[in-house]
Amino acid sequence: MAYSVLMSVYYKEKPDFLKQSMESIFQQTVPTNDFVLVCDGPLNNELDTVINEMQKLFGERLKVIRLAKNGGLGNALNEGIKHCKNELVARMDSDDIAYADRCERQLEVFKRYPEISICSGIVEEFTDNPSVVDARRVPPETNAEIIEFAKMRNPFNHPCVMYRKSDVEAVGSYQDFYLLEDYYLWLRMLMADYKGYNLQEPLLHMRAGSEMYKRRGGWRYVQTQMNLFRFMKEKGFISEWHYFKGCFLRGASAICPNWFRKFMFERFLRDTACKKG
Questions:
Q1: pLDDT (tens digit, 9 = 90+) per residue, 54-100?
Q2: Which of 105, 108, 110, 165 minimizes the number of CB atoms within 10 Å of its CB?
Q3: Rg for the chain, CA atoms, rounded
Q4: Looking at the 3D structure of the chain, how many domains does it have?
């Protein structure tokens, strides 16, 4: 089965991280024949140098789409998905490192379960060294578990998701929803009765650290969380109880100090049993 890879990069990304991420795609046991890289606004010389190196490595398989200005992740992915030539699309962030057999294992899921529209798996968070795992994001496995989990938390790990392009486009693809474009997309797909599955094995090394938790703080993040839970309540996806519980817990998390938010995520919202150091 052929698949496309969809990645977005913007000017703040570190060149070394981008190179590591793209090389991990090049090293996949089942290689892609279509790598779509969206440059979300003008980049710097260092990033362009990495992209030129990768163009030589991938050849015609790498398609670079350059947007005139930075419009955010959702906008960049919406543009990129139009250029993906395959039905199956593997998302990849520009600073993460995929396991070499990540895409092979996800392709096996789509072969085994043709009714599946979305598939992700476990991601292992790290700060500096990918071999030193800080925590693991373990999503629910079955579709029934995914639906229940989605009432309070994002049920898929977006950095390692693979999905059917036509199903994503059928519900309107990515739409503007500050920092929650993916969660909003998954909810619309689940409400439209598209099925999901999560492999219970690691697929990706995800770069975390304090900056990631900072993005999950502040009043703007509180508002976007409340808007998402309001959407779920209005669509009948969650009860009044789930709505108030979600708004309270997410709101409290967003306004607390960053060090405490990081502690709460790692202590209660991640599997830290595998912590190595």
A1: 999 999 999 999 999 999 999 999 999 999 999 999 999 999 999 99
A2: 108
A3: 18
A4: 1
Structural domain including 21 reads: 1-94
Condensed to tens digits (0 to 9), the pLDDT of residues 214-234 reads 555 567 888 898 999 999 999
AA letter at 151: K
Cα angle 200, 167, 175 (rounded to 5 degrees) comes to: 95
Average pLDDT over the chain, rounded to an integer:
90
| Residue 161 falls inside a structural domain | no
3-state secondary structure of 124: strand
**CATH number for the domain that contains residue 30:** 3.90.550.10
Chain centroid offset of residue 110 CA:
18
Residue 176 tokens read as 């503007």
Q: What is the 3-state secondary structure (H, E, C) of 69-121?
A: CCCCHHHHHHHHHHHCCCCEEEECCCCCEECCCHHHHHHHHHHHCCCEEEEEE
Percent helix, strand, coil in the chain, to 5, is 45, 20, 35
Angle 240-255/219-234 helices, nearest 10 degrees? Answer: 170
Q: State the Cα–Cα distance between residues 169 and 175, nearest whole angstrom.
A: 11
